[in-house]
Amino acid sequence: MTQRTNLALVDSDFRRRAAITHALAGTPIHVEPFEDLSELVARWPRDGLVLVHDDGQIVQDAIRTMTEIGQWLPLVAYGADPSTNQVVQAVLNGAIDYLEWPFGLNEVKQALMVAEQSSNSLGTVRLREAMARSRVQRLTKREREVLAGVADGLSNRLIGERLAISPRTVEIHRANMLNKMGANHTSEAIRIAIESSLVG
User: Fold this and answer.
1) Which range of residues forms the domain containing residue 17?
2) pTM to 2 decimal places
3) Number of Cβ atoms within 10 Å of the Cβ of 40
């Protein structure tokens, strides 16, 4: 690993942040320390890896934030003596790897390799999902219901029957939905709905 890699470190503990920053000083890994997620969001990096101290909630919050802002970076969690359940939960919430604290340069390099491999495949999927979700979040509850009906292949009349509204009202919601999502046609709206996991 010769090229410089950016590592955004999020940890509320000053001593751990300092220890990790010091351990990686003089390596091709540039550490940018942050006290919390809001500090990171204010100065969101263009590339690299997000390394977060697992407090049981931050992985989920970080993934949700990436989804909202439509920017995906691979995320690795770490914790001291983590339980199997803790590691599994972090991975289910979206972490691509988990390190046990204390760790050194070799463990970070390994995590970066995993991140690079996953960002080529998973990263693209995650970014598309994040962008799709941010588009779907612009919709009202009724517009989402219409989108779900469209994705099920229903006509305006059948969507109207399902939602107890007139076909003309469905048509209006459908036009608003396409406009808000920035979709040129119905099939694009359906693709966005699928990518956002609104429909399976």
Assistant:
1) 5-129
2) 0.64
3) 21
